[in-house]
């Protein structure tokens, strides 16, 4: 069903699936998308994610939620990395509340995966994390913040004239959140990292850095797979199998 999540002053479009007869102690799942590649992605971010959420709920029996970050889809607001972290934390709190879930599993693709491990590292309610094509850091954005700001405007992830009020403050978050360091703090909780060996946007070395920092993850590098692992049936099958296995972690 469609839902809305309050994140500060923003309203995030969300889709939630609550399976009938779910086990009382079933963990809730939060699925988050990555940074849009182009204008079409900014408007349609996570457009296919509700289908996956419904499958997770129906096939595995988890209460599950996906949403669009501020600046994307039908959510209000403008992109900032700090804002996206606030949105993810709000989504985690939302699934815990509506599903009475004591444990949460976060699943993220691309930038969403990188932020997922950052949020998970500092939240004891997050018991497992799945990262698909994650970035190990945001240093390339931090090195050229004004260029990246203009890109975010061009693709429609920033819509408000004059946003942000301070470019320097907006850009500080690019070095504030360190997925590689967060993975080390998250250990030894269960983590899986999936990456395509033909990813044209994020090198597989980023996934290996995160995996090495954690120390004992599951990791799968998919031969011939590109950046959008959500659309690779092999990746989805691996993810669903892992979700089954970590039910009682």
Task: Write the topology of this structure.
Blueprint: E1 2-7, E2 10-17, E3 28-32, H1 39-44, H2 49-60, E4 64-67, H3 81-99, E5 104-109, H4 111-121, E6 126-132, H5 139-143, H6 145-154, H7 167-176, H8 179-186, E7 191-196, H9 204-214, E8 218-222, H10 233-245
Sum this structure up briefly.
The protein has 249 residues and is α/β, with parallel strands linked by helices. It is 42% helix and 19% strand. It has one domain (2-245): Rossmann fold (3-Layer(aba) Sandwich).
Report what the structure shows.
The chain has 249 residues and is of the alpha/beta class. It has a single domain (2-245), classed as 3-Layer(aba) Sandwich (Rossmann fold), CATH 3.40.50.1820. 42% of the residues lie in helices and 19% in strands. It has 10 helices and 8 strands. It has helices at residues 39-44, 49-60, 81-99, 111-121, 139-143, 145-154, 167-176, 179-186, 204-214, 233-245; strands at residues 2-7, 10-17, 28-32, 64-67, 104-109, 126-132, 191-196, 218-222. The protein has an 8-stranded mixed beta sheet, with helices on both faces. Helix 4 (111-121) links the parallel strand 5 and strand 6. Helix 3 (81-99) crosses helix 4 and helix 4 (111-121) packs across helix 8. It is globular and about 50 Å long.
